[in-house]
Amino acid sequence: MDIENILHGAGLIFIFLGIFTIIVSAIGLFRLPDLYLRASAVGTSAGLGVASIVFGALLMDFSTANLIKALIAIIAQLLTSAVGSMAIARSGYLNNYKPAEITHTDELALTKRG
Amino acid sequence: MIWPFRIISFLFWYAKEFLLANLHVTADVLRPRKRMKMNPAIIAVPAASKSDSEWTLISTLITLTPGTLTLTLSKEHGILYVHGMFVEDREALVAEIQEMEDRLLKAMRRNPGVLSRPTERPVVQPEDVEEGDLHEWDAPGITEAESEGGEAR
Questions:
Q1: Structural domain boundaries of chain A?
Q2: Which of A68, A89, A104, B115 could form a disulfide with A39 if both were Cys (CB 3.0 to 4.6 A apart)?
C-alpha cells in the first residue's frame, strides 16, 4: 500500500464525515424549536460539513496550489457561516422573535423597553 | 509561556473544543424529542476584550462553536450576550466563555496584562432615543402626500 492510496482513503472518510454533518444539520433544522437554536447549531455545523468536504478533496488531490486554495476556502467558509448566523439571530431578536418556551433565562430582554 | 506558543496552544485547544461541541450538538439533535437535553438561555457574560478586533474575534469564535451563539455585545458595559444551548446555570456558561476569552486574549496580546472583568453585573437600561435622531422612515403618521412636498421638516 503506497501513500497515494492511504491519502485517497483518508480523503473519502473526510468527505463522508462532511456529508454526515450536513445531513445532521438538515435534521436539526426540522427538530430544533426556535430560530436561535437553529442558527447556533445548524449554521456552524453546515460550515464544518463543507470545510470537511473541502479538506477531503484536498487529501485526494494534493498539491501546494490546492493546499492554499483549500485553506482560503475553509477559513472563508467558517467565517461567513459564523457571521451569517449572528446576523440572522440578531435580526430575529430585533424583530421581537420570542425564544422558545424552554429558554429559561433571557438577560437580553432586560435591555428592552417593555 | 511565550507568545507564539500561546497562539499554537490556543489553536489546538479551540480545535478540541470545536469538535467536542459538534459531537455534543449532533448527539442531541439525533436524540428522541423526549430525551433531548436542551436547556437554552440567553446570558450576559462580562468580557475583558478591549479593541475592536478582539471583540470581533471572540464573538465570531463563540458563534463558530456549535451550541453557543453571540446575539449582540455592549462595548460600553463590556458584555457579550450569548445564547447557549446547554446551560445548566448562569455560572457554567460564563465560565466556559471566559475561559475561551482568556485563552484568546493571551494568544492575541504579546503582553496579556491583567485580564480583569467587572464582577458585579452592570445595570443596562433601555435608553430613550431623542426625537431629532429619528429618521424620516421611522416617523409614523406621515402620509405620502405630506412627504411629497419636499419641505425640510
A1: 3-99
A2: A89
Q: Please state the domain count of chain B.
A: 1
**Cα–Cα dist A102/A105, whole Å:** 9
Candidates B33, B59, B66; nearest CB to A44 = B66
Dist. CA B45–CA B58, nearest whole Å: 12
* Interface test with chain B among A35, A77, A107, A113, by most B beta carbons within 10 Å: A107
Is ipTM over 0.90? Answer: no
A9/A90 Cα distance (integer angstroms): 41
SS3 B142: coil
Instruction: Report if residue B80 sits inside a domain.
Output: yes
Q: Does position B111 have pLDDT exceeding 80, yes or no?
A: no
Name the closest residue on chain A to residue B31, using Cα atoms. A31
CA distances from B21 to A45, A56, B16, B85 (A): 10, 21, 9, 10
In a domain, B115, yes or no: no
Inter-chain residue contact B42 with A107, CB threshold 8 Å = yes
Which of B82, B64, B85 lies closest to B15 in space, CA to CA?
B64
**Residue of B68, B69, B74 to mutate when probing chain A, most A C-beta within 10 A:** B69
Query: What's the CA gap between A47 and A74, in Å, rounded?
Result: 9
Its domain, for residue B40, covers 3-108
User: Across chain B, what does the average pLDDT equal?
Assistant: 78
